[in-house]
Amino acid sequence: MEFTPVSPIRPLIETAETQSAQSGRSAGISLFSTVFQSAINDVRETNAKQVDLEYKLATGQLDNPAELTLATAQASNSALLLMTLRDRAMDVYNELMRISL
To answer: DSSP letter string over 67-97?
Structure first.
């Protein structure tokens, strides 16, 4: 799972304010969507691996049942990570909505 590094904080006053604001917004949106899309894809992949190993265990094709245990733990951890990301994003959104201008 690859993560895009966070870009450093830029000064508020620049020569081309409108261009930097637009590029900053699109970079923030793409980083946000990239992280969540990566987490969602990881949950899908680990769940598919778990289901495949469960099928192999049920049909007698799995030689090492520890693989299923590891796949189940990976799927569980991936889902917990995604839920944590979602909860943190909702906390940040709610906090931003409380700010009065």
So the answer is: HHHHHHHHHHHHHHHHHHHHHHHHHHHHHHH
Query: Considering Cα of 80, then 81, then 83, then 87, what sign does the dihedral take?
Result: positive
**What's the CA gap between 96 and 77, in Å, rounded?**
28
Length of the chain: 101
Distance in angstroms (rounded) separating the CA atoms of residues 93 and 91: 5
Residues 80-101: pLDDT tens digits?
A: 999 999 999 999 999 999 987 7
Helix 65-98 / helix 17-59 crossing angle, nearest 10 deg: 150
pLDDT digits (tens, 9 = 90+) for 41-60: 999 999 999 999 999 999 99
Whole-model pTM over 0.90: no
Distance CA 12, CA 94 (A): 25
